[in-house]
Amino acid sequence: MKAFVFHGPEQSAWHDVPDPGIQDATDAIVRVDSVSICGTDLHILKGDVPDVRPGTVLGHEAVGEVVEVGSGVRTVRPGDRVLVSCISACGLCRFCREGAYGQCLGGGGWILGHTIDGTQAEYVRVPFADLSVHPLPATVNSHHAVLLADIYPTAYEVGVLNGRVGPGDTVVVVGAGPVGLAAIATAQLFSPGRIIAVDLAPARLEAAKRAGADTVVNAAEDPEQLVADLTDGLGADVVIEAVGVPASFEMCTRMVRPGGRVANVGVHGKSATLHLESLWSKNLTIRTGLVDTYSTPALLRMMAAGRLPTSSLVTHDFPLHRMEEAYDVFSRAADTGALKVVLNSGPVKDRT
């Protein structure tokens, strides 16, 4: 089969690799119909994730059709159309029993495109299939469903739920990339008083408005003062960090009110300073997290009911064999306006 393979920092290619096969009784083999590229994949290509070994097929988000299952799989069978979760769960360890699948001790967690071959291929082996794939209703098309593999549960769990967004809250989302936009969309489920989006790119701020932000501000135009002005100097109830750089995290801690919550979603590759000299007395809650995907079934029901915006997040689509071009477009988001890039093995008939 063809797959997108990491060969070392700044080295990757779409080329032939062996077809995956069943290795364990809990495995499923899925033929990929739709797959997307994540910002984490770009971090891997830059060499920021040293756990990824050269020769690994990248990707951890996909929708496809089950073509083979191991003898221990009970919940799906060949022919089922499924969502492949970015997190795999053994279902037996302490963390899995608590629903903290991202911390799985039994061989799961974030493994696809990380410690084992991932989804940016024509076929993918999915371990622990009973908990790691989700059957899709016919009303949800593959092109949109792939957004539930990672960005929606990440934004919802690590951003909105960890931040305890509530009715009437002032919520600031720093970073209007795909995850930030999904945070804006899902924060609205809890009736906040206002949502403020912060980003450097005008195109992303426009996307934030479409996703439901009440106010947008360029990060270069003193968003801290704007937040202070809108809250009578108090600060935001919830600030969601969705960038992953030290300056944005430190800005978030300055914009939150005493007793407020900072939810860090961004993937950080460099140290950020925690200014306890000014924060120690503010009664803050700062939450970090790797997505667990426990919310995926609920989000899938919301998508099937038309309660989640999807089409505005997908800005580019490509056939699967144009993976290298898709990476180029996604990596130059400031120039191309790319938000979420989706690749398909066949034509996309419905993107509404």
From TrEMBL:
SUPFAM superfamilies found in the cross-reference section: GroES-like (SSF50129), NAD(P)-binding Rossmann-fold domains (SSF51735)
Pfam families: ADH_N, ADH_zinc_N
Highest taxon, organism lineage: Bacteria
The entry's keywords: Metal-binding, Oxidoreductase, Zinc
Classification via InterPro entries: ADH-like_C, ADH-like_N, ADH_Zn_CS, ER, GroES-like_sf, NAD(P)-bd_dom_sf
PROSITE patterns: ADH_ZINC
Enoyl reductase (ER) domain span: 8-343
SMART domains: PKS_ER
Cofactor(s) listed: Zn(2+)
Stated family: Belongs to the zinc-containing alcohol dehydrogenase family.
Matching PANTHER family: NADP-DEPENDENT ISOPROPANOL DEHYDROGENASE, ZINC-TYPE ALCOHOL DEHYDROGENASE-LIKE
Protein name: Alcohol dehydrogenase catalytic domain-containing protein
UniProt organism field: Streptomyces fildesensis
